[in-house]
């Protein structure tokens, strides 16, 4: 029995099975460690590749995480201080030509998906005055509202800018409040979930689900929104210019509530007409 075996021999007897298995445990541990490192490397490479390829995949790969502190520690006041002087010279030129004081009391950005344009309108004496148009260099999807994560659609509706991001992967960006209350209400009616998010107007010329306007344009828009105040800035996005082409809602493909949305957007767009 074990009690009659010397202590040294008893220890060897008790631990021998475990000692014999030690090499296998060590091998398994090393394999798991290497696998973890391999996964980390793969994830890192894929993440960087996705960031270079586009902005706003299924709302996730790129436009998401635009506020990562690893991208930089710039602040909105810091960016305004750095680029504001030259940018405001250009902005003041636009506003002077339109006969509107700068910065305006209220601002509206009209996103025309089919035309690939972003119009800037400012309020003066209770009227909306056209200021300037920027080209949209990239936007994914087609006509119709965004309804779920991964559909690559640019939203359609009336939105607000809720965040100015000075540390965007796309130079600078402005985050929209999609999904807003209207989007959520319609989703509840439809029984939809996972509506997506992280929708921005940003720089560069690649995008999935957002509006990419290039670096020079986003600098001007960023400064303009900051000076006007995001609380005073509205963003209206439509599939095409409803001032020139009336939507044929009876023939449009989409959810049952689409005709009503387009009726509302037609009325909204009627405010913005050049004299």
Write the layout of secondary structure elements.
Blueprint: H1 7-53, H2 76-98, E1 107-112, E2 117-124, E3 127-135, E4 157-165, E5 173-176, H3 181-190, E6 200-202, E7 211-212, H4 215-228, E8 233-238, H5 258-269
Parallel strand pairs: 1-8, 6-7
Antiparallel strand pairs: 1-2, 2-3, 4-5, 4-8, 5-6
Helix pairs in contact: 2-4
Provide an overview of this structure:
The chain is an alpha+beta fold and 275 residues long. It folds into two domains: 2-53; 69-269, L,D-transpeptidase catalytic domain-like (Beta Barrel), CATH 2.40.440.10. The protein contains five helices and eight strands. It has helices at 7-53, 76-98, 181-190, 215-228, 258-269, and strands spanning 107-112, 117-124, 127-135, 157-165, 173-176, 200-202, 211-212, 233-238. An eight-stranded mixed sheet has the order 3-2-1-8-4-5-6-7. Strand 4 (157-165) and strand 5 form a beta hairpin. Helix 2 (76-98) packs across helix 4 (215-228). The longest helix has 47 residues, at 7-53. The radius of gyration is 28 Å and the shape is globular.
CATH class of the largest domain: Mainly Beta
For the record, the count of structural domains works out to 2
Beta-strand level of the residues, as a percent range? 15-25%
Low-confidence stretches: 1-25, 39-61
Rg calculated over all Cα atoms: 28 Å
Strand order of the largest sheet: 3-2-1-8-4-5-6-7
- Compute the number of helices: 5
The assigned CATH architecture of the largest domain is Beta Barrel
Largest sheet: 8 strands, mixed
Order of helices and strands: HHEEEEEHEEHEH
Tell me, rounded to a whole number, the average pLDDT: 82
As for the CATH topology of the largest domain, it is L,D-transpeptidase catalytic domain-like
End-to-end CA span: 106 Å
Q: State the total count of DSSP E strands.
A: 8
Helix content: 25-40%
Under CATH, the homologous superfamily of the largest domain reads L,D-transpeptidase catalytic domain-like
């Amino acid at each position: 029995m074990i009690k009659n075996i010397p202590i040294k021999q008893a220890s060897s007897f008790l631990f021998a099975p475990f000692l014999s298995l030690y090499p296998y445990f060590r091998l398994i541990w090393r394999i798991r460690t290497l696998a973890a490192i391999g996964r980390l490397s793969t994830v890192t490479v894929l993440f960087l590749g996705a960031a270079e390829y586009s902005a706003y995949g299924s709302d996730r790969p790129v436009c998401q995480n635009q506020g990562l502190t690893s991208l930089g520690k710039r602040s909105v006041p810091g960016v305004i201080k750095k680029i504001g002087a030259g940018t405001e010279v250009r902005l003041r030129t636009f506003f002077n030509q339109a006969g509107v004081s700068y910065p305006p009391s209220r601002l509206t950005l009209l996103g025309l998906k089919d035309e690939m344009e972003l119009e800037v309108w400012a309020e003066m004496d209770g009227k909306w005055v056209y200021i300037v148009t920027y080209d949209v260099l990239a936007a994914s999807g087609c006509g119709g509202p965004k309804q779920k994560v991964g559909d690559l659609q640019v939203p359609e509706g009336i939105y607000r800018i809720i965040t100015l991001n000075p540390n965007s992967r796309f130079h600078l960006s402005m985050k929209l409040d999609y999904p807003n209350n209207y989007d959520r209400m319609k989703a509840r009616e439809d029984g939809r979930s996972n509506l997506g998010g992280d929708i921005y107007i940003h720089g560069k010329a690649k995008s999935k689900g957002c509006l990419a306007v290039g670096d020079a344009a986003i600098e001007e828009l960023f400064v303009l929104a900051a000076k006007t105040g995001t609380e005073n800035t509205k963003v209206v996005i439509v599939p095409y210019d409803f001032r020139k082409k009336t939507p044929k809602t009876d023939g449009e493909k989409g959810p049952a509530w689409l005709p009503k949305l387009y009726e509302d957007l037609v009325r909204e767009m009627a405010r913005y007409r050049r004299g």
